[in-house]
Design brief:
With about 230 residues, the chain is of the alpha+beta class. Helices cover about 15% and strands about 25% of the residues. The strands form 5 sheets. The chain has a 4-stranded antiparallel beta sheet with strand order 4-5-9-10. It has a 3-stranded antiparallel beta sheet with strand order 2-3-12, with no helix packed on it. It has a 3-stranded antiparallel beta sheet with strand order 7-13-11, with no helix packed on it.
Length: about 230
């Protein structure tokens, strides 16, 4: 299997998007110093940007247990619950490893994909952010064993908006709908209520208008390295 626990695959995709050059000198990232450069932090365009991501993906309560919800919480250098190590490659690599279906490989084989292993203070747990079942509308993300097909996430840069090419939808590798695949989403009611903890869900991509743009709550960015601001 040609995956790498280094972030080469993930970083290569972000280079294509122009993100690495834009973020290399930014003061605001997430993850603890112990996790260091190997860690990645996922943030929502709805709630932040590359200069100030604001909220990043976290494990609720920091518990390394199956079923713990994946949420967005304020970025902090002290929050080991925000430490994730990417295991990245092409979708075709995950197909060869038996982690995605032939249909997913047919549609996305040349795209980058990743698993995000929960690794508080840089120590892997064998648990990744994923889905408890095959993707369905409004299913919440939780920790599941990393050997599950439901922990593969596709960086769908082909659907990045022309007006914001540095952001991208993140499609579940267990999706079975390819016209409107299931992808990471922030529920509108939670965003509108300004809650401090927002569970990430999956929903069908909601293409808008003739240009088929996507709402900000379905667009994401990534930072590498520890929190330094």
């Amino acid at each position: 299997m040609s995956f790498s626990r280094k972030m080469l695959g993930f970083a290569a995709t972000l280079t294509v998007l122009g993100c690495v050059a834009a973020t290399a000198s930014l003061p605001a990232t997430a993850a603890t110093p112990a996790c260091g450069a190997h860690c990645v932090s996922i943030f929502s365009k709805e709630l932040g940007n590359y200069t100030s991501p604001g909220f990043v993906e976290s494990v609720l309560g920091g518990q390394a247990t199956v079923g713990a919800p994946s949420v967005l919480e304020p970025a902090s250098a002290l929050a080991s619950s925000e430490d994730w190590i990417p295991l990245s490659g092409l979708v075709s690599d995950f197909y060869a490893a038996g982690l995605v279906s032939a249909n997913v490989n047919s549609h996305y084989g040349g795209e980058r994909a990743t698993q995000l292993e929960y690794a508080p203070f840089g120590i892997g747990t064998g648990l990744c952010t994923g889905l408890a079942t095959v993707a369905y509308q409004n299913e919440g993300l939780t920790l599941v064993p990393c050997n599950s097909a439901r922990t593969v996430w596709i960086l769908d840069v082909a659907d990045s908006p022309a007006t914001a090419p540095a952001y991208f939808p993140i499609v579940s590798g267990s999706t079975t709908d390819f016209s409107r695949p299931f992808a990471m989403d922030l529920p509108q009611d939670e965003v509108a209520s300004d809650q401090q903890i927002l569970q990430i869900h999956v929903r069908h991509l909601q293409f808008l208008g003739d240009e088929k743009t996507l709402p900000d709550r379905q667009l994401w960015g990534a930072h590498f390295g520890p929190y330094t601001s």
